[in-house]
Amino acid sequence: MIGGGLGGWERGEWTDDTQMALCIAEEAATGHLDPRAVAGRFLDWYRSGPADVGAQTGAVLSRASAPGDVAPAAERYFSNNPHNSAGNGSLMRTAPVALACLGDDDALVGRAMEIAALTHADPVAGEACAIWCVAIDRAVRHGTGVLEGVREGTALLPAARRAYWGERIDEAVAGPPSSFAPNTFVVRAFQAALAAILHTPVPAEMPCRHLQAALQCAVSIGNDTDTVAAIAGAWLEQGGEPAPCPLNGPCSCTAGPAIRAGTSSAWPC
Ligand SMILES: [Mg+2]
What we know:
Layout: H1 16-28, H2 35-47, H3 55-61, H4 67-80, H5 95-100, H6 105-116, H7 123-142, H8 146-155, H9 159-174, H10 186-198, H11 210-220, H12 225-239
Helix pairs in contact: 1-2, 2-4, 3-4, 6-7, 7-8, 7-12, 8-9, 9-10, 10-11, 10-12, 11-12
Bound molecules: magnesium ion (MG).
The site of magnesium ion has 4 residues, from helix 12.
């Protein structure tokens, strides 16, 4: 992270994806992941004047004066923009929900949807978050590959929504990753991140570099690059095996078990 870019970022500074994820993580660290308290942290963050705020997130938070106003503001935004209320800003920050709810499918799905809906009331945004949280949960607890994980997440959705998500996942399996741009729509961002993981082969000599390679693939897809990388990275940090070695030091891993990332076919990104 060399700094610069569209936001004039400092070296090592992270963008809104991580900033909002930290709001959730810090609330989870209290031992009780209360959505209204998360809304309060979102408001505090927004009022701190961050360099980058997603358009939909900013529109919602600017219309809320107290934590209890946030979700209703998102509902009004959805009512007023029924075909343009499913940005990727909920999925980009959802990973700490998974870590706070490990092993509890009802909580995984319920909290993911509730916290998504604080700013993104379109149900498809909550569905994407729920599926991704289940995939992270399965990777953490069972070492499950990302493809199996998202399919397990889809199985927990209402029956009427499973075919839609099954088709979107199949599209990501078919690839190539580069086909998932633009990706500001939450479903396209989900597909871009999933495709980047699935279609980045595990380096034979240095399997610990899969995270790096998959993130480079995610970024190279283009459009909302930090967000697609944040989504992919949230799974890769938990699902990669072996763990990534430090990028600036010698690789100390041995060619251990391959990363259970799914398919190994390589697409040019
Ligand atoms: Mg972004």
